[in-house]
Design goal:
This protein is mostly helical. It has a domain at 28-78. The protein has 4 helices and no strands. The protein has helices at residues 8-11, 16-25, 27-47, 55-76.
Length: 78
Protein backbone atom coordinates (compact mmCIF):
# COMPACT_ATOMS: atom_id res chain seq x y z
CA UNK A 1 0.00 0.00 0.00
CA UNK A 2 1.18 3.52 -0.68
CA UNK A 3 2.33 5.90 2.01
CA UNK A 4 -0.54 7.54 3.89
CA UNK A 5 0.20 11.16 4.85
CA UNK A 6 -0.83 12.73 8.16
CA UNK A 7 -0.15 9.72 10.37
CA UNK A 8 0.20 10.72 14.04
CA UNK A 9 3.91 9.89 14.13
CA UNK A 10 4.42 12.31 11.22
CA UNK A 11 2.22 14.99 12.73
CA UNK A 12 4.05 14.80 16.07
CA UNK A 13 7.50 13.35 15.28
CA UNK A 14 8.99 14.60 18.55
CA UNK A 15 6.32 12.71 20.49
CA UNK A 16 6.44 9.32 18.73
CA UNK A 17 7.55 7.51 21.90
CA UNK A 18 4.91 9.24 24.00
CA UNK A 19 2.21 8.36 21.46
CA UNK A 20 3.20 4.70 21.66
CA UNK A 21 3.31 4.81 25.46
CA UNK A 22 -0.12 6.44 25.69
CA UNK A 23 -1.63 3.92 23.26
CA UNK A 24 -0.46 1.15 25.58
CA UNK A 25 -1.40 2.76 28.91
CA UNK A 26 -4.45 4.97 28.27
CA UNK A 27 -7.61 3.40 26.84
CA UNK A 28 -9.16 6.77 25.94
CA UNK A 29 -6.04 7.86 24.08
CA UNK A 30 -5.84 4.50 22.28
CA UNK A 31 -9.46 4.88 21.14
CA UNK A 32 -8.76 8.46 20.06
CA UNK A 33 -5.67 7.41 18.09
CA UNK A 34 -7.62 4.59 16.43
CA UNK A 35 -10.40 7.02 15.45
CA UNK A 36 -7.81 9.41 14.00
CA UNK A 37 -6.21 6.56 12.08
CA UNK A 38 -9.54 5.43 10.60
CA UNK A 39 -10.57 8.94 9.53
CA UNK A 40 -7.12 9.62 8.11
CA UNK A 41 -7.18 6.40 6.07
CA UNK A 42 -10.63 7.23 4.71
CA UNK A 43 -9.46 10.71 3.67
CA UNK A 44 -6.43 9.15 1.97
CA UNK A 45 -8.65 6.73 0.03
CA UNK A 46 -10.85 9.65 -1.08
CA UNK A 47 -7.88 11.80 -2.11
CA UNK A 48 -6.35 8.86 -4.00
CA UNK A 49 -9.70 8.50 -5.79
CA UNK A 50 -10.09 4.94 -4.52
CA UNK A 51 -13.32 5.83 -2.71
CA UNK A 52 -15.54 8.40 -4.46
CA UNK A 53 -17.55 10.77 -2.28
CA UNK A 54 -18.95 14.27 -2.21
CA UNK A 55 -16.78 17.29 -1.53
CA UNK A 56 -18.95 18.11 1.48
CA UNK A 57 -18.35 14.70 3.06
CA UNK A 58 -14.60 14.93 2.39
CA UNK A 59 -14.50 18.34 4.09
CA UNK A 60 -16.49 16.97 7.04
CA UNK A 61 -13.92 14.20 7.44
CA UNK A 62 -11.04 16.68 7.31
CA UNK A 63 -12.68 18.74 10.06
CA UNK A 64 -13.14 15.58 12.14
CA UNK A 65 -9.46 14.65 11.62
CA UNK A 66 -8.41 18.13 12.74
CA UNK A 67 -10.56 17.92 15.88
CA UNK A 68 -9.08 14.51 16.72
CA UNK A 69 -5.57 15.84 16.09
CA UNK A 70 -6.26 18.74 18.46
CA UNK A 71 -7.42 16.31 21.15
CA UNK A 72 -4.31 14.17 20.64
CA UNK A 73 -2.15 17.30 20.91
CA UNK A 74 -3.79 18.02 24.26
CA UNK A 75 -2.60 14.65 25.55
CA UNK A 76 0.89 15.33 24.22
CA UNK A 77 1.05 18.87 25.61
CA UNK A 78 2.24 20.30 22.29
Amino acid sequence: MSHVPHELAEEFPEAADKIHELKMSNAHFAKLADAYHEVNREIHRIEAEIEPTSDAYAEELKKKRLALKDEVAGFLNV
